[in-house]
Amino acid sequence: MWGRRTFLATAAVSLLSACGSKFRSYNGPAVTRVLINKADRRLYLLNGSTALKTYKIGLGNSPTGDKKVEGDGKTPEGLYYIDRRNPNSAYYLSVGISYPNDQDRAEAKALGKEPGGDIFIHGTTGKKRGGADWTAGCIAVKDREIEEIYSMVRLGTPILITP
């Protein structure tokens, strides 16, 4: 009897601790691309042309226009790739965007400046919420939403960011 109670108590603790994990599992259709529409403040996880998930987003603190240089507060526009994952992000969880690309570097160089970098899709961890544009150029979603995104998106997934 003691063994069964210990087993059941251990199983219950394990299940409860799993519920609080920020690392979710995902077994659905593959995300084949990510689409961000800056004007609509929406992020779409797509499988082919089918939207698997849609999220309201916050952008850089100066969201109109394409990111050109470090510190401009703009979110980049164009075709990029998911190139890294950060489970220890200052913003809960994050997935990296391959900005700057060669074209971005050339544009910044022509202006005599650096293009910047470290552009992510990330959570908020107590920072501003909702669709407010507050980041330094990243794409922000709620913490529970970045949990889904983090579990669904793989390295190398194309991400198109449109005006």
Set down the secondary structure blueprint.
Layout (H helix, E strand, L loop, with lengths): L1 H18 L13 E5 L4 E6 L2 E7 L21 E9 L7 E4 L4 H9 L9 E3 L16 E2 L2 H10 L5 E5 L1
Parallel strand pairs: 1-8, 6-7
Antiparallel strand pairs: 1-2, 2-3, 4-5, 4-8, 5-6
Question: What this model shows, in words?
Answer:
With 163 residues, this protein is of the alpha+beta class. The chain has a single domain, classed as L,D-transpeptidase catalytic domain-like, CATH 2.40.440. 23% of the residues lie in helices and 25% in strands. The protein is built from three helices and eight strands; from the N terminus they run αβββββαββαβ. The chain has helices at residues 2-19, 102-110, 143-152; strands spanning 33-37, 42-47, 50-56, 78-86, 94-97, 120-122, 139-140, 158-162. Strands 3-2-1-8-4-5-6-7 form an eight-stranded mixed beta sheet, covered by helices on one side. A hairpin with a 2-residue loop joins strand 2 (42-47) and strand 3. The protein is globular. The termini are far apart. The relative contact order is 0.24.
The main sheet comes to: 8 strands, mixed
Q: Estimate the mean pLDDT confidence.
A: 88
The computed structural class is alpha+beta
Strand share of the residues?
A: 25-35%
CATH-defined architecture: Beta Barrel
Ranges with pLDDT <50 over ≥5 residues?
5-18
What fraction, in percent, of the residue positions are helical?
Answer: 10-25%
Count of structural domains: 1
Tally of alpha and pi helices: 3
Total beta strand runs: 8
Side by side, the strands of the main sheet go 3-2-1-8-4-5-6-7
What is the name of the CATH class? Mainly Beta
Termini separation (Å)? 64 Å
The third-level CATH topology is L,D-transpeptidase catalytic domain-like
